[in-house]
């Protein structure tokens, strides 16, 4: 999916919501546990309930890897089930020496490898340009680079001063030499509202993947006010706040209501903050 297609999808859906499919087998409602593939049955119901309110889905790979081969199969079926109109993110946070990154890239981008073809993958910038380059070799696919993460420990390194500036700023400026806003996005936590103006100064056109609303307490209003650019430039993720809105038989219905409430708020912010 291209930059323009993603923006068109946001305008069409009146939403920049990304639903996080962080599906923990231990949290799946009891009535689904007897299904042949409870994780897929759960995801299918969540996708059916939320697709009209979001533009993207982000399965966090850890939740699938933890189930071994069964988990990879649930992930493959889930990815196949996501409507082709929606942007897909493999939240794998990969990155290694180039030779190894090449295999990570194949895993998530080349369907003849592991049977998966995502639009994008999250990548850690720490090992530098040659660790990111192999992901960019896949035409039309996106790298979503960790810039300023939502967790408290994000400050341990990302806010350290390097040459008088926080390290995450260096990540934003250096990585723009590797790819433009049409191939790269940045992760910025919703809990880091104070940094959004700064980040927009350094990366005015890029999409930002913003996790941390919902369960982690970030403010959608603040993110939208300070982070929106002329192409929206935001994908705001919520996982637990949507998919575990209820642990009972009504889980999908409650997920739908949560997603709809976020979409309605986003529609308001698109009117308010998107330059017309
Ligand atoms: O890359 C991410 O998606 C990510 C980066 C970050 O800084 N913080 C963060 O929470 N995430 C992911 O976003 C999701 C947040 O989930 P909830 O807190 O349940 O909405 C999880 O899959 C996290 O791994």
From TrEMBL:
A GO molecular function held by the record: orotidine-5'-phosphate decarboxylase activity
Question: One Pfam match, by short name?
Answer: OMPdecase
Domain Orotidine 5'-phosphate decarboxylase stretches: 16-255
Q: Per the record, what are the reactions this protein catalyses?
A: orotidine 5'-phosphate + H(+) = UMP + CO2
Record-linked InterPro entries: Aldolase_TIM, OMPdecase_type-2, OMPdeCOase_dom, RibuloseP-bd_barrel
Specify the domain of life of the species encoding this protein: Bacteria
Output one GO BP term: 'de novo' pyrimidine nucleobase biosynthetic process
Q: In which pathway does it act?
A: Pyrimidine metabolism; UMP biosynthesis via de novo pathway; UMP from orotate: step 2/2
**Keywords for this protein:** Decarboxylase, Lyase, Pyrimidine biosynthesis
Entry EC number(s): 4.1.1.23
Q: What class of enzyme is it?
A: lyase
UniProt-listed NCBIfam families: pyrF_sub2
Record-stated family = Belongs to the OMP decarboxylase family. Type 2 subfamily.
Q: What's the name of the protein?
A: Orotidine-5'-phosphate decarboxylase
Q: Can you name the source organism? A: Salmonirosea aquatica
């Amino acid at each position: 999916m291209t930059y323009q297609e993603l923006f068109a999808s946001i305008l069409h859906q009146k939403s920049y919501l990304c639903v996080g499919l962080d599906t923990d087998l231990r949290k799946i409602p009891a009535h689904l546990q007897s299904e042949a593939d409870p994780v897929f049955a759960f995801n299918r119901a969540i996708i059916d309930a939320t697709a009209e309110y979001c533009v993207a889905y982000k399965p966090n790979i850890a939740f699938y890897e933890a189930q071994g081969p069964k988990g990879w199969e649930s992930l493959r079926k889930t990815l196949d089930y996501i409507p082709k109109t929606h942007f897909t993110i493999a939240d794998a946070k990969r990155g290694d020496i180039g030779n190894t990154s090449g295999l990570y890239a194949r895993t998530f981008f080349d369907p003849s490898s592991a049977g998966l073809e995502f639009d994008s993958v999250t990548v850690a910038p720490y090992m530098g340009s040659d660790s990111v380059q192999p992901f960019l070799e896949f035409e039309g696919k996106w790298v979503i680079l960790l810039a300023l993460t939502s967790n408290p420990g994000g400050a341990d390194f990302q806010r350290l001063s390097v040459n008088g500036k926080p390290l995450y700023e260096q990540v934003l400026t250096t990585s723009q030499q590797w790819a433009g806003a049409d191939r790269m996005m940045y992760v910025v936590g919703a809990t880091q509202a104070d940094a959004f103006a700064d980040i927009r100064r350094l990366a005015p056109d890029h999409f930002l993947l913003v996790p941390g609303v919902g369960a982690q307490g970030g403010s959608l209003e603040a993110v939208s006010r300070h982070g929106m650019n002329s192409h929206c430039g935001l994908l705001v993720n919520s996982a637990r706040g949507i998919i575990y809105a209820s642990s009972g038989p009504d889980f999908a219905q409650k997920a739908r209501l949560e997603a709809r409430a976020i979409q309605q708020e986003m529609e308001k912010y698109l009117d308010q903050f998107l330059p017309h």
